[in-house]
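Per reviewer request, we include the raw input and output of the structure prediction for the construct analysed in the revised manuscript.
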Amino acid sequence: MEKQILKSIYQKQPKRADAYWLLHFNETEVPFQQEYDFTEIVKGKIYRLDFNLGYKVKPNVRDMFNAALEELMKKGIIDLENKYESLRKHKVSADFLFIVMRNTFNLDAETSIREVFLLNAYGLLQKVEEAPDKYLGIDRNSLLVEYIALR
């Protein structure tokens, strides 16, 4: 998946940013666990946050991400001050665009009827589920959904 994310950043419509944050959500056996692990993949450029959430915790990306950023800034691990003097003097803070990667399937002539049925059922489930901005708690203006073909 991370290979697909990096491909999305650099090969599709390139996304320019001062830094890239990869957010992963892992469900744990502890019902109300809310912890995160921070990894700096490329110094000052690519970061990874692994949120370890209990199975009873609904992920609210905006709040959890902001809390993690605040804690990392207090510890002096990251600096989110705007790198551009013209924006810094007007106290314009960093902004974020969240990209949700969704899997999609390309059907071809060799796809069996059983696979077609299963993939169509999966597609129906995706249409019925709650929109990403609602279940992740992200403002629609800060969200982009990208589709990745698995075949």
